[in-house]
Design brief:
The protein is mainly alpha-helical and 102 residues long. 48% of the residues lie in helices and 4% in strands. It has helices spanning 2-13, 45-53, 59-66, 77-83, 86-98; strands spanning 25-26, 42-43. A two-stranded antiparallel ribbon has the order 1-2. The N and C termini lie close together (11 Å).
């Protein structure tokens, strides 16, 4: 289940136009919206988790994403999203997906 959720998040963010920083989600005009919302066209990592899993994000997904060796000490995946590139965010998801058994 965790692996499926992470893959769904990655799929949601795969296109750079579907990724954002500084907000959980934005519409096509760049306005911040609450996630999930039918007009959201791009998400941050946390927004993608909410869009994929719902508002009841589990500690399991938070812990697994925050355990990435790509994060600096005391950094969270939310902070990583807002300080790194789209490619680096996808690399974080890939690393976390690959860290799980097949």
């Amino acid at each position: 289940m965790l692996k499926d959720d992470l893959i769904a998040m990655r799929d949601l963010l795969a296109d750079p136009r579907c990724w954002t920083q500084g907000a959980y989600g934005r519409d096509a005009k760049g306005h911040q919206l609450t996630v999930p919302h039918p007009e959201v066209t791009c998400w941050c990592l946390m927004g993608a988790a909410i869009q994929t899993i719902g508002h009841d994000i589990t500690d399991e997904i938070d812990d697994h994403l925050n355990d990435s060796p790509l994060l600096k000490e005391h950094q969270t995946y939310v902070g990583f999203n807002d300080t790194h590139t789209h490619a680096e965010v996808l690399a974080l998801l890939d690393e976390r997906i690959n860290a799980l058994p097949a």
